[in-house]
Structure formats: structure tokens, C-alpha cells
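Continuing the batch. This is chain 6 of the set; chains 1 through 5 are on the previous pages. Same settings as before, nothing changed between runs. Recording input and output for traceability.
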Amino acid sequence: MIKLKVALDVDGVLADVIASWLVHNNKIRRQLTRDDITDWDFWKKFQIDRFLFYAELSKCWIDWDMIPPTEQNLSYTTENLTSIARVDIVTAREKSTDLHVKEWLKHHDISFDNYVSVIDGPMKAELDYDVFIDDSPLNAQSFLQNGKTVLLYTQPWNMHMRQPDIHRISTLSEGVEILKSYS
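Output for chain 6:
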């Protein structure tokens, strides 16, 4: 039997990096909460420069041990996922953060087969995977346009996505259950 090839995102799916960014942001500018982040490009609403926001997000990875997981039992869930599919971590980020992300994955005992880093999120859609588990509405749109299966990890910034082709999941274990039906 051929295993499904699954691309599993990090930021917003496994790692709650926005929680760390909020702590950073709230030390230097207007106080924000997770409830304020309702759009993918929310920084525009708060007059935060896009490049500055991404630089700050990358800086959060320096203190990778302060970034919480998005949910409990990710080690167990990713182990289950890798038992039914070939799972690669597929992430869009500055190369300078790759080492920190790998440390975070190791620390949280996240099971995966390969680590793939691309420069820009929509580039992921060009990669050879059957299923993408991601939280980005922009990436989800690219995946759909390329005929890929999308499991959209529910976050406040993707709630506007309502396409019937998208499988919305609230936990990674829900994604595992969906993928079991594909096997």
C-alpha cells in the first residue's frame, strides 16, 4: 500500500508562535490579544510594517523554548499521523530560524519524516504532497488551485475560509481521523 504524502505546517498548526509574538508586541506597542488577530494580514489594521512583523515573528524563534504547542499531546498525535502517512514538516520561513524550529520539534517529540523549508508559503503548493495541513488562508487557496487536499487548522485568521473543498480541523487528531478514511 502506498502511503499518503502529507505536508504538515509548523507555525499556527504545531507551534503557537503568535502567543510569543503577542508577548513581544505588548512590550513595545499597543496591547493586543489573540481576539484582535482576525485576518491573516492583521498587522495592516494595526499599522505594523509587514517586514517588521515577520522579522519579529522570526525573532520569537530565538527563544524557541518559550513557544507553546497549539494543543496537548502533539507527540502522540504526530506519532499516529506518521503511522498512516509519510509526514514531512513543510514550513515557510527565514533560513536563520530552521535550527530553532528543529530544536522545538525535537523538544516536543514531534514525529515526522523530513523537514522542508521554503521561502514563501504559497510555494508549498508546488511541492509533491497529497495533503496539506496548514493554517494559512493564502496557502489553502494555493493548495486548492493546485488540486491538493487541504486540512485547514482552525485559527481566528482563517475563519472566513468557507470553500466546500476545505476540510476544517480544530485539532490535529481530527486530521488523523480524516486521513485514516483515505487509507
